[in-house]
Amino acid sequence: MGRKKIQIQRITDERNRQVTFTKRKFGLMKKAYELSVLCDCEIALIIFNHSNKLFQYASTDMDKVLLKYTEYNEPHESRTNADIIETLRKKGFNGCDSPEPDGDDSIDQSPLMEDKYRKASEDLDILFKRYGVSTAVTGSQ
């Protein structure tokens, strides 16, 4: 059983938007962590929410990665939302449909896979807590 595609557009309901932000922020940090470990690369992730609250993740030291970024003089890949939308259109996605399954819907998984996923998530939570990365939802700003 597959997951349904969702429309990529602003969520109007404040509570749903906050829940989605929290879940997807954690998912993004988890993917950044996985990419840094699997591909041995440095990653710095900076997020400002709608009320200008800062969230950050760095695979190493954030200041060192940002210094490396500001001193980098070679041509490099740089993307915006418009670039991503254009790339998705060229690949046949209908602009607003998500090319990836939505993480909020459940799919059938074997108990072994569910256990491995749960264990990996717990390990990642421990790592985030150890390095002071905030993944908790706080009250209204």
UniProtKB/TrEMBL annotation:
The keyword DNA-binding applies. It is found in: Nucleus. Residues 93-112 are annotated as: Disordered. Keywords: Activator, DNA-binding, Nucleus, Transcription, Transcription regulation. GO terms for molecular function: DNA-binding transcription factor activity, RNA polymerase II-specific; histone deacetylase binding; protein dimerization activity; RNA polymerase II cis-regulatory region sequence-specific DNA binding. It comes from the Eukaryota. GO terms for cellular component: nucleus. It holds the Pfam family HJURP_C. Residues 1-61 form the MADS-box domain. This is Myocyte enhancer factor 2D. It comes from Chelonoidis abingdonii (Abingdon island giant tortoise). The gene is MEF2D.
